[in-house]
TrEMBL record:
GO terms for cellular component: cytosol. Catalyzes an amino-pyrimidine hydrolysis reaction at the C5' of the pyrimidine moiety of thiamine compounds, a reaction that is part of a thiamine salvage pathway. The lineage of its organism: Bacteria, Bacillati, Actinomycetota, Thermoleophilia, Solirubrobacterales. This is Aminopyrimidine aminohydrolase. It catalyses: thiamine + H2O = 5-(2-hydroxyethyl)-4-methylthiazole + 4-amino-5-hydroxymethyl-2-methylpyrimidine + H(+); 4-amino-5-aminomethyl-2-methylpyrimidine + H2O = 4-amino-5-hydroxymethyl-2-methylpyrimidine + NH4(+).
Length: 198
């Protein structure tokens, strides 16, 4: 992340990250769409629809723009093979969405939004790097709209946590912790240029 902030990140690591992140975002979009379907009220449904749109359109446009810069087509991005780390993270999210309750789903999606909002904000405060692509990456996550969606996710998690019984809260904690571990592993996998599964 520091390498994105100061423009020194070797581009092969960034490329690896963008290609795997594209696959990740497809499933993250599915998670949000499932959240939309399961949301307890219409106002929450609308937010989930907005979140889904923000990921599948705005955020993935960023990835598509990088791919275009590298002469990589959208179809090639989609055809990329997932690494074990990408697969494990996406499987965990979708398993939680399929088998857990709405509160667990929300706790599982929070580290993704919160982590990137935090990184985007901090790197933006330090000023844009000389590298155009990395500056674009930072601007996407520092954007007030992304920041607002991340804040809303935090508030929703707090509300659901306050309303949950101790066992429900423990399940939320577990989902949040597992997702946070997956986030860290995802950065590390790009750094190591992890090979695709199978
Ligand atoms: C792995 C990962 N987590 C969170 C985000 C932010 O949506 C992202 N693009 N990728």
């Amino acid at each position: 992340m520091r390498g994105i902030g100061d423009g020194t990140l070797p581009v092969e690591r960034f490329r690896h990250y963008v290609r795997q992140d594209y696959l990740y975002l497809v499933d993250y979009g599915r998670l949000l769409a499932l959240g939309c379907a399961r949301a307890p009220d219409l106002a929450t449904m609308r937010r989930f629809a907005e979140l889904t749109q923000a990921i599948l359109v705005t955020e993935m446009d960023l990835h598509r723009s990088f791919a275009a810069d590298w002469g990589v087509s959208e179809a090639e991005l989609e055809a990329e093979r997932a690494t074990p780390t990408t697969r494990a993270y996406a499987d965990f999210l979708l398993r939680t969405a399929a088998l857990g309750d709405f509160s667990e789903l929300v706790a599982a999606l929070l580290p993704c939004m919160w982590g990137y909002a935090e990184i985007g904000e901090r790197l933006a405060q330090a000023g844009p790097p000389a590298h155009d692509g990395y500056a674009r990456w930072i601007a996407t996550y520092a954007d007030p709209e992304f920041q607002a969606l991340a804040s809303w996710c935090r508030e929703l998690t707090d509300r659901l946590g306050a309303a949950a019984d101790p066992a429900g809260r423990a399940r939320m904690h577990a989902a949040f912790a597992e997702s946070s571990r997956c986030e860290l592993a995802f950065w590390d996998a790009a750094w190591r240029l992890e090979a695709p599964a199978g």
